[in-house]
Every structure is written in structure tokens, then in C-alpha cells.
Amino acid sequence: MLSRLTRPQALAVCAAPVVALLATAVFAPLPFSVAQPGLTANVLGENRGTEVITISGAPVRETTGQLRMTTIEATSPDTRVDLPDVVGGWFDTDRAVMPRDSVYPSGDSTEEIERYNQRQMKESQDEATAAALNHLGREDEGIEVTLRLADVGGPSAGLLFSLGIIDKLDGDGSGGDLTGGRIIAGTGTIDAAGRVGAVGGVPLKTQAARRDGATVFLVPAAECSAARAELPEGLRLVPVTTLKGAVDALVSLEKGTGKVPGC
């Protein structure tokens, strides 16, 4: 024998699974990381008491201004991220919600991820050194470059490392500094041929740059639209695709000559 549910009873029965799903979503960990603006470091100076760029085998210039590499800080791969964290990140301009797999290699332990990021940083440093010396035509002069940057992993400082090496060895090529005395920040991978690549997290990096005094931000050209999304007031975007393009743009800024590209 079948009995018919009243409308309130039917709604209650139908609503129960929905409520259960919502409760699960609220309290279940989600495959996201929450990121925020991270540290910046002047590659022309010291970081934690150690020179970031040390050069031997060639005279080194005294420089003015700063070239600041930028980072984001993300929740660790084993940090629990729940629905309220995700929703809060979506509405907070100082934070961003990113798929965990876009921040960390999938399936690796925290220790493996740290080792991976350090390998990427070492490879980036080697490529940055080769790119800078190739740009200057000094790859066969026996110049030794050591790059040290504590507690930072990944390849996104490559462009700024290369620019720092060039500034210390050659400046703007005519006795001046690449920075023109400014605080220049930026991000971007680089290969030995001087090609600049995209990195991700650019809106947060522009905020970190402006927080630490930068007025110019070098951004991979492919990420111009992302950089404009939350651009802090007083920060000028300069898109780049190559190391040569970045150097040319900085020289034009310094000397007030030529056209400086913009996003």
C-alpha cells in the first residue's frame, strides 16, 4: 500500500540530499590554493645579508636604483582549503584562488615539491646567466656568476636575474644604470636565447611590487591583460617578450628617448 506525502513532507525529503551536499561542500577540503602578494627582493643588492648576484672574472659596476623580483605566497600543498576560504578569496583583491595543480605539481609530497621548485630555480639561474652573457657578447670570457636567493623557488625570477647581471657588468651601455635610479620590478621566465615566458600570479605580483615602492613593472607580454586586472595606482606596466626588449625599454625610460611599450 502506498501513502502520498504532503507537499511540505515532499519538499523536506527532496531538500535533505541538497542540504547534505552543501554541508559536505562547506566542510570538505577543496583542490585549491589561496595565494597573496609575496616578498620582493632587489637582485642588485642583498637578501638576508647575502649579495644576490656575485660576479668574478670581470669588473663590476656600482649601481643605483633597484631591480626587484616578485613572488606570490600560496597555501602549502597540504593545507586544508575549504569553501569559505575559496569564496573569501574570490572577493578579496589581495588574495587569489588558484587550482592547486597550477601552483604545485600534482601528486607530489611537500618535500618533493620543495626539491622540484629548487631545481627550477637553479635551472632558471643558469639560463639567466647564459642569457645575460649572450646579450653582452661575453659568453666566452670566463665570467663566473653566482646567484643566491633564500627561500624562493621556481623559475619566475629569470628575467630580473638577467637584467641584474647586465646592470652590474654593463649598465645601460654608456655609463648609466638600467634602472635610471628607479625601483623597477617585474617577473618572467627566461631561456638562454633571451626569450621571456609567462609565469602566472601577475596581479598579486604587481601589488607586491607597488607595496615595496616600484613604479615600473616588467611583465611578459602574454600576461598584459592579467596585469591590468588589479593594477595598483602609480605602477606602469612595460610588456616584454625578450631580454633585449626589456633592456631597450629600460634604457628608453632612463634616457627619456624612444618609445616605451605599454600594456
From TrEMBL:
Name recorded for this polypeptide: Lon proteolytic domain-containing protein
Where is the Lon proteolytic domain positioned along the sequence?
154-236
Q: Which SUPFAM superfamilies match?
A: Ribosomal protein S5 domain 2-like
InterPro entries according to UniProt: Lon_proteolytic, Ribosomal_Su5_D2-typ_SF, Ribsml_uS5_D2-typ_fold_subgr
